[in-house]
């Protein structure tokens, strides 16, 4: 899109809506609680979301996929499936604000992975930003001063595997149409989650199925509005707006789930998001191929 065609106000608006959609996903999963095992809940979310692939069927039929691409799609699906299971697990174990703040880490891990595996240069300023983000994690977790719960560990690894999924998506984006990349992710994640879901299956109620279908709707809508935001304005404009997602998460946790407001979590989240925003801004200034994704881009 040319600069003349861009509309920063609309970009900010669509990113604001994106944040609300993703917080709605978080709230619904939190509300459902642990009565449906995390792997099964994630599996059902993707099975019910397959209905959104119907418009992509013509692109899938026309696609010519090489053996190498099948492997890459499969590995991406495996990474993403693990990430989704860890995210669903964390959502039922730790406060919403902490899940949201730690999810900001994924783009930082993408930046590290791009340097290690894609030949992206990791300059001193970028390294400093990564260090600031890791300090943000330490502020949130505060080991030795509070209990580091299994949900926290799950979110650390969740961000890592989501970063791996995004890096594979960047590779595939140069080789396949976006509709094919998106559809293959949904298909392979569903396949990857199936054995874990069946291993600990609990018959869901109609209410659970309805709730997970709404989760799928909000997640799909969030990815759509995020695309609208990127089309309307540069990532450097929309990226800071993602901080509001942490604000919504804190308010939701306090008002709906009676979770206490933790100033350290907010401060740590600000450090992480600030580091991600700086890395994104540096990429724009240097005008190199964008590697670091906006914070919502690695979400389910």
Short description:
This protein is an all-alpha fold and about 300 residues long. It has helices spanning about 10-30, 40-50, 55-60, 65-90, 95-105, 105-115, 125-140, 150-175, 180-200, 205-230, 235-240, 245-255, 265-285.
Structural account:
This protein is mainly α. Helices cover 73% and strands 0% of the residues. The protein has helices spanning 8-32, 38-49, 57-62, 67-91, 96-103, 106-117, 124-141, 150-173, 178-199, 206-232, 235-238, 243-255, 263-286. Helix 1 runs antiparallel to helix 10 (206-232), helix 4 (67-91) crosses helix 9 (178-199) and helix 5 runs antiparallel to helix 12. The model has no long low-confidence stretch (mean pLDDT 84).
Please name the defining characteristics of this protein.
0% strand, mainly alpha, 13 helices, globular, 300 residues, single chain
* Order of helical and strand elements: HHHHHHHHHHHHH
Computed structural class: mainly alpha
C-alpha geometry: globular
Overall radius of gyration: 18 Å
Helix content: over 70%
Give the topology.
Layout: H1 8-32, H2 38-49, H3 57-62, H4 67-91, H5 96-103, H6 106-117, H7 124-141, H8 150-173, H9 178-199, H10 206-232, H11 235-238, H12 243-255, H13 263-286
Helix pairs in contact: 1-10, 1-12, 2-4, 2-9, 2-10, 4-8, 4-9, 5-8, 5-12, 5-13, 6-8, 7-13, 12-13
């Amino acid at each position: 899109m040319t600069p003349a065609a861009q509309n920063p106000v609309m970009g900010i608006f669509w990113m604001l809506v994106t944040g609300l959609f993703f917080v709605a996903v978080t709230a619904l999963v939190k509300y459902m609680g642990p009565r449906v095992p995390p792997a099964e809940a994630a599996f059902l979310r993707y099975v019910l979301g397959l209905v959104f692939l119907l418009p992509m069927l013509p692109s899938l039929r026309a696609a010519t996929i090489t053996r190498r691409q099948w492997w890459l799609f499969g590995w991406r699906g495996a990474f993403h499936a693990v990430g989704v299971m860890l995210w669903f697990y964390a959502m039922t174990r730790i406060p919403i604000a902490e899940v949201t703040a730690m999810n900001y880490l994924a783009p930082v891990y993408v930046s590290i992975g791009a340097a290690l595996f894609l030949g992206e240069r990791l300059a001193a300023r970028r390294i400093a930003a990564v260090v600031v983000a890791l300090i943000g994690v330490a502020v949130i977790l505060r080991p030795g001063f509070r209990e580091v719960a299994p949900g926290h560990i799950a979110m650390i690894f969740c961000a890592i595997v989501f970063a791996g999924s995004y890096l594979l998506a960047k590779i595939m984006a140069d080789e396949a149409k976006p509709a094919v990349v998106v559809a293959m992710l949904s298909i392979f994640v569903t396949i990857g989650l199936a054995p874990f879901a069946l291993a600990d299956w609990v018959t869901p109620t109609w209410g659970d199925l309805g709730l997970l279908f709404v989760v799928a709707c909000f997640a799909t809508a969030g990815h759509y509005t995020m695309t609208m935001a990127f089309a309307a304005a540069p990532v450097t404009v929309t990226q800071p707006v993602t901080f509001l997602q942490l604000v919504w998460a804190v308010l939701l946790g306090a008002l709906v789930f009676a979770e206490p407001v933790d100033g350290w979590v907010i401060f740590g989240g600000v450090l992480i998001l600030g580091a991600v925003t700086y890395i994104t801004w540096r990429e724009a200034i240097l005008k190199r191929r964008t590697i670091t994704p906006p914070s919502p881009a690695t979400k389910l």
